[in-house]
Structure to design on (169 residues):
């Protein structure tokens, strides 16, 4: 009698176990389907339903409306960081054109860069202007077309008496 009872309990137990296993499997399948759905939907969500367009016939200006990229920037005058308002995260040029030179990108932030001047600081006064991109000194920096992820460093050293004399002789 007691044996029979325990046997029935065991079968019940086994049935319950099976039921749990079935539930776990169902949960797993649901979980995987959900993950797949999210993985498939995410790119569409990010691009706002438009997949990355490749339209070579379109003009650069038209494509420019969709562009958004960044260039790291550090500008110093006599070693002191030049404060440039509105830089993204205080150090990135926020660029929305597909092609832009360094002076063009800086002009958006009210900074004037020419071959010889950084704002009001000019090399005719004996100062020195150096520009490097990704650690490489750049001679022709006014015509350099920026690329996404570039790190630009602009340094102006004002004339010191010694150098002014050196330049004069
Ligand atoms: Zn940005």
């Amino acid at each position: 009698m007691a044996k029979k009872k325990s046997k029935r309990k065991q079968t019940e137990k086994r049935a319950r176990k099976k039921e749990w296993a079935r539930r776990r499997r169902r949960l797993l399948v649901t979980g995987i389907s959900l993950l797949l759905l999210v993985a498939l939907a995410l790119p569409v969500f990010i691009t706002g339903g438009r997949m990355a367009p490749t339209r070579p016939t379109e003009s650069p200006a038209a494509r420019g409306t969709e562009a958004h990229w960044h260039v790291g920037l550090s500008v110093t005058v006599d070693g002191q960081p030049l404060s440039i308002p509105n830089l993204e995260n205080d150090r990135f040029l926020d660029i929305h054109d597909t092609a832009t030179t360094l002076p063009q990108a800086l002009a958006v932030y009210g900074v004037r860069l020419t071959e010889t001047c950084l704002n009001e600081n000019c090399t005719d006064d004996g100062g020195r202007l150096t520009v490097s991109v990704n650690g490489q000194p750049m001679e022709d920096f006014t015509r350099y077309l920026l690329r996404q992820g570039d790190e630009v460093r602009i340094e102006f050293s004002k004339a010191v008496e010694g150098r002014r004399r050196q330049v004069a002789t």
